[in-house]
Request: fold
Amino acid sequence: MFHSDKDLQCRNIITKAVCGKGRKFSNATHTITLPNKPSNILGSWAINHSFEAEKVGDVIEVIGTYDLDLWYSYANNTKTAVATETISYAEQIPLSYLDHNCVKTNLVINATAEGPTCTDAKISSGGNSVIVEVEKEYVVEVIGETKVCVVICNDSCDDDEKGFLLEEEDIDSSDTEDLDPSFIIDDLE
Reply:
């Protein structure tokens, strides 16, 4: 059923939507001073990561902490110990997309794509400390209220028109048995 332009009207719907996106990869180097002169590095881990994010201007500011655990041997490889140091950090994540037409864009949904990971740990040239390299990546989304315009028709819609509304009996189970319910298109960009 076709309608003329005079039959069409628009309505504004206020809804929450993703109004901004950003992503950032970062490297950091930390020096951990040990109470004993290390012989070998046996392992290093970044654990207990926690952070908060908020929108500040046109960037997302992430403030957080994580613990660096360093397992090492000393006394000519006859003893081992674990040293822990808490690292505090602040990162600014630029938004690659930000819709300024959104209202109340103060809600930041964020998730780390890759939490802090130790990529290298080596004994410093002085011998009493260890240099640890850590990398992390953030993906953030800004949620805000926005207005969506939809076209409506003044005439009553013919709900019985084939294809306009599907009734349960219109869908054959054989049409959907090959669908993978875990398949979701994340981003159409």
Notes: The chain has one domain: 5-154. Strands lie at 8-33, 38-56, 59-74, 79-98, 103-123, 129-153. Helices lie at 173-176.
